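Progress note, sequence design subtask.
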């Protein structure tokens, strides 16, 4: 699962038993040694953390996650528990939270469904069913509406064309169809945008975006912004951005989670936790390129305490 562009790597001389004992010691008795917990969690990878969970239970006779929940709190707890959770299950729990809480967190739905690969989406569907006994699609349908719903349902099938071949004439035809569906008519035929953006392969879409610029004299993102609104606009823009440069998309998600007043901690935590073993190195580089400041300095200025400490570890040092 893990790519090799992560900031968090596995321990080379790993002992699940030592880690389990260290965690127990950190939580036993009065007070909690948060630094010791951080030290174990950020210096192991996800597979090793699963071993620690099993070893903790077999040698200490307690459930590690339950202990974390009783000893930790707030955003720091969310990060630690997130890092202990298998990656597919983490996505599944985030999707569920985004629909089953008070109101819907559309940003979370869009982010996960637009950025994950077909294979990841298929695993998410399977795990979602095992975990909740219901289909992800059914929950999306009951929680969203109109064309936005259709976009999410389409993305949730994990059925995007995977071929690398690009048919130039089809790319031109798709670009023309998008132009006719938006800029070149009164009103917008959103369904055409949905079909092309949700189904076509990445290489094909990149060619379509180039052709679109030739036909419309503007970027596809500008047309989406002027033709669409709200969640649908956000979803289609996310698809375009992920096709072009997924690391830049995540960098932007992080930037807006911290920019301005207040912090969207749910987004900040989810991106840091879910990408730290996959492509955080690239996300950091894009962040610096796009915003002229390091992700590290943004997190440092926007968070505090143990929460800040653990996030800075996931960030992997300053650029």
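Output:
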């Amino acid at each position: 699962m893990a790519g090799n562009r992560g900031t968090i790597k596995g321990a080379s001389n790993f002992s699940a038993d030592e880690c389990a004992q260290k965690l127990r010691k950190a939580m036993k008795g009065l007070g909690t040694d948060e630094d010791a917990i951080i030290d174990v969690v950020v210096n192991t990878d996800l597979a090793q953390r699963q071993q620690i969970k099993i070893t903790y239970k077999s040698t200490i006779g307690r459930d590690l996650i339950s202990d974390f929940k009783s000893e930790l709190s707030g955003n720091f707890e969310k990060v630690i528990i997130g890092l202990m959770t298998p990656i597919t299950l983490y996505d599944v729990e985030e999707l569920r939270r985004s629909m089953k809480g008070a109101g819907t967190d559309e940003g979370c739905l869009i982010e996960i469904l637009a950025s994950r690969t077909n294979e990841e989406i298929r695993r998410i569907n399977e795990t979602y069913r095992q975990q909740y006994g219901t289909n992800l699609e059914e929950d999306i349908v009951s929680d969203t509406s109109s064309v936005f719903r259709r976009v999410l349902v389409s993305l949730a099938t994990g059925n995007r064309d995977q071929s690398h071949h690009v048919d130039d004439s089809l790319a031109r035809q798709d670009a023309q169809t998008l132009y006719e569906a938006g800029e070149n008519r009164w009103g917008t035929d959103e369904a055409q945008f949905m079909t092309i953006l949700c189904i076509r392969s990445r290489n094909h879409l990149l060619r379509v975006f180039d052709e679109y610029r030739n036909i419309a004299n503007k970027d596809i993102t500008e047309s989406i912004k002027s033709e669409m609104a709200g969640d649908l606009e956000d979803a289609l823009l996310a698809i375009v951005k992920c096709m072009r440069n997924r690391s830049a998309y995540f960098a932007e998600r992080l930037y807006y989670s911290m920019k301005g007043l207040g912090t969207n901690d749910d987004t900040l935590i989810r991106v840091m936790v879910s990408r730290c073993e996959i492509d955080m190195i690239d996300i950091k580089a894009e962040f610096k390129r796009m915003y002229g400041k390091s992700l590290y300095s943004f997190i440092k200025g926007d968070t505090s305490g143990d929460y800040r400490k653990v996030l800075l570890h996931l960030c992997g040092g300053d650029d």
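DSSP finds 19 helices and no strands in the chain. Work on this subtask will continue into the next period as scheduled.
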